[in-house]
Amino acid sequence: MNTKTIIEAIGYVGSALVLVSFLMASVVKLRIVNSVGSVIFTIYAFIIHSYPTAIMNLCLVMINIYYLVKLSNTNVEYDFVKLNKEDSLLKYIVDCYKDDIMKCFPGINMDFSEANVGYAVCHKGTPTGILLGSLNDGLLEIMLDYSTPEYRDFSIGKYLMSKLPEEGVKSLVYRGSDVNHKAYLSKLGFVQKGGYYEKVL
């Protein structure tokens, strides 16, 4: 592989990351990936002596860093809403995000008729997540713990965990698919025990 090919590859990688970033629903992930792509493209621009392109991409990196810092210093305020399985809000959320729920939890049973507790997390009136399960003697068997793509940054889960003790929940068990869920479960302190995960509050 000659030098020219390597230089062109750097440019293509930078461009690809910038483009891919705009496909991301999460604003935080978008800005992080966009920044990485812009840094790589800046390097490419300097190598080929395209200084206007380099300056533009450096500015993009600085703008992204500014907003990432701003987002990290902003406390998002959530509202905790109790639901039941007949609640219209619950049905609305599940229907709206059915495809994404099935993608996040491969093989999930979308029949939640056995759930006896449900909670929604909202931000400024917008539903951002739901938790459904069966609560018996302080043990909550999780059937669904879902966050919408825009708010999938662990903050909703942490907020829920802080509210559940007030609802009589002492521990939680999750037996569903962890294919796309391992990082979330680990971040919230769930411990893997054989074929399921458990968290004691």
UniProtKB/TrEMBL annotation:
Residues that span the membrane, as ranges: 6-28, 40-69
Q: Which residues form the N-acetyltransferase domain?
A: 76-201
Q: Name the SUPFAM superfamilies for this protein.
A: Acyl-CoA N-acyltransferases (Nat)
Check the record and name the InterPro entries matching this protein: Acyl_CoA_acyltransferase, GNAT_dom, Uncharacterised_HI1736/YgjV
Gene Ontology terms, MF aspect = acyltransferase activity, transferring groups other than amino-acyl groups
Q: Which Pfam families match?
A: Imp-YgjV
Per UniProt, which keywords does this protein have? Answer: Membrane, Transmembrane, Transmembrane helix
Put simply, this protein is called N-acetyltransferase domain-containing protein
